[in-house]
Amino acid sequence: MTRPQDQHITSRDNAFLKDLRRLSQDSTAYRKQGRFWVEGDHLCRAALTRGVQPAVGVFSESFWPMAPVEWAHAAIKNIVISDGLFHDISGLESPASMGFVFDLPLNAALQPDAASVILDRVQDAGNVGSILRSASAFGFKQIIALKGTAALWSPKVLRAGMGAHWGLRLIEGVALPDLAALALPIVVTSSHRGAFLHEALQRMELPMPCAWALGHEGQGVGAELEALARLHVRIAQPGGEESLNVAAAAAICLHASATASASR
Predict the structure, then answer these.
(1) Going by C-beta distance under 8 Å and a sequence separation of 6 or more, which residues neighbour residue 181?
(2) DSSP string, 139-207
(3) What is the mean pLDDT of each run of 10 residues along the chain (264 residues)?
């Protein structure tokens, strides 16, 4: 199969490379450019598996001649740059030698009846990506990020999400009043309030589908959002720790909901 035409860029000051560098190193640059950057085999393959076509493929000079056919033919356009330029752009300690630029999905409207996760000012990119991964694994297809939450399409969140982005409906910059459109019960987890999660599961009290609200790493869910909750639960911690990391708590809660759904 003949390789598609490629463009070689050698100047560090090339406008495309400047934009690409911003996408790789600035967590919110994608909002201005309407595109985002994904680097490496795993994330790129996850996108192609979901049928998402990249706009531009970017390859290092040493990798391009041996690039697998599926990589070389995935994008509408391919750019080849020197290994040094690729290393300069890469956000990884060990650059992967290839990546894709994707067009940012159009802003999605909130789907009232979709099992959801509400992120209330969750600020750590690793936590956000991990929560997205758990949401996708346990059947929660809509992520509603309130203002103050880490940028969902930032490079760090994309890497932590490990490909989960491609199977989720992501809505950013949501204001609290917008949640009125939800037709699902909101469930809030707290370290000090509500029934124990395992007991609520045993009593078949966990609603599904629902919208789990997960809050700021230090402050938790805000009072106004907490007031909207139909159910408050807490995770038993017999070891005596004061609280759990929000991503760990999310995995436990979302799995419990998936278990409740399967048992009905």
Answers:
(1) 110, 112
(2) T--EEEEETTSPPTTSHHHHHHHTTGGGGSEEEEEE-GGGGGG--S-EEEE-SSSSEEHHHHHHTT---
(3) 74 95 96 96 94 95 92 93 93 86 91 97 97 97 97 96 96 95 93 84 89 90 93 86 86 93 71
The conformation of residue 45, written as its DSSP 8-state character, comes to H
Measured in residues, the chain has a length of 264
Query: Which stretches of the chain are DSSP H helices?
Result: 15-25, 29-33, 41-49, 69-72, 83-89, 125-137, 155-161, 197-202, 223-226, 246-262
Instruction: List 102's β-bridge partners, or say none.
Output: 36
pLDDT of residue 191: 67
Report whether the peptide linkage leading into residue 209 is cis, meaning its omega lies within 30 degrees of zero: yes
